[in-house]
Amino acid sequence: MKYRKVLLIDDDLDDQEIFTMALDQISPELECIIFKNSDEALLKLIQEQIKVDIIFLDLNLPRMSGQEILMKINEMEYFQNIPIIIFSTSSDKHTIKKLYELGASDFITKPNKLHLLVDTLKSIFI
After folding, report:
1. What tens digit of pLDDT does each residue of 44-88 get?
2. Helices (H), the chain
3. Among 14, 38, 84, 117, which residue is least crowded by beta carbons within 10 Å?
4. Which residues contact 47 (CB under 8 A, 6 or more apart)?
5. Range 5-125 has CATH code 3.40.50.2300
6. What are 78-114's pLDDT values in tens digits?
7. What is the distance between the alpha carbons of residues 42 and 35, in angstroms, rounded to a whole number?
8. How is the chain split into domains, by residue range?
């Protein structure tokens, strides 16, 4: 496994549940830390209270957008080598292009079926 400790920043409880179910199907060794509050997640990251191997970030978050979090994380030296994957319902090509320019490692449009998410995530973790 390339990555073992996963951070998901997403305020949607259903998306959190589907994401963790998909990770469980890929490997029981994957540990997922979830934050629904972007402010809290960013504070923990800045203070280095959590250490992760990969970050999945929703775009549409309350208070601070995923794009803003992406920019702030990329300013921190510690996270320079940690992939940040945007995990969103959006599929706007202009937005996706801008996110790559801001440092996103990849972009995944949230699938509507668990098996599709499992297949997508397998290509990242295995």
Report:
1. 988 888 889 999 999 999 889 999 999 999 888 888 899 999 999
2. 13-26, 38-46, 66-74, 93-101, 114-125
3. 14
4. none
5. yes
6. 888 999 999 999 889 999 999 999 999 999 999 989 9
7. 9
8. 5-125
